[in-house]
Amino acid sequence: MAARAKVCLVDDDIFVRDALALGLNDAGFDVVTAPGAAAGFDIVQRGGIDAIVTDMNMPGTDGAQFISEARGRWPDIPIVAISGAVTIDGQETAAIAASLGANATLMKPFRARQLAELLSSLLPPSSSQS
Predict the structure, then answer these.
(1) pLDDT, tens digit, for every residue of 86-96?
(2) What is the per-residue pLDDT across 51-71, written as a single tens digit (0 to 9) for each?
(3) CA dihedral of residues 119, 123, 129, 130 (deg, nearest 10)
(4) Cis before 124 (ω within 30)
(5) By percentage, how much of the chain surpasses pLDDT 70?
(6) Would you call 31 exposed, middle or buried from its count of C-beta atoms within 10 A (0-12, 13-18, 19+)?
(7) Strand, helix or coil at 91?
(8) Which of 71, 102, 120, 127 could form a disulfide with 5 if both were Cys (CB 3.0 to 4.6 A apart)?
(9) Domain architecture of the chain: domains with CATH
(10) Contact call for residues 2 and 129 (beta carbons, < 8 A)
(11) 3 state DSSP class of 82
(12) 95-108: per-residue pLDDT in tens?
């Protein structure tokens, strides 16, 4: 049996974090959650992470900064940006995320199943379990 893909989920909203973690777990992923960028960096630095999901709008180091730095540190790990804001400072959120190296963007609200399907499409077949 193949190992479950391990996802680092970074979101400052505990309700979003918990709901997505539960849904991704049910879809066959192992999920490690982080309430912000600093904790997210620590988790990914420890290794074994197959994909990163990050909110774009967080206090402190926001998702754009997180994506930019994570892409520099871990160029091969798929990154999915999530956001409830269509625009940030007048620019399209998805375009900002893509320009910084995110592989995909999902706009809130969405179902955990949609995120699981997206992650599965970004991961090698041996890593994804949806």
Answers:
(1) 777 777 888 99
(2) 999 999 988 889 999 999 999
(3) 30
(4) no
(5) 95
(6) buried
(7) strand
(8) 127
(9) 6-121 (3.40.50.2300)
(10) yes
(11) strand
(12) 999 999 999 999 98
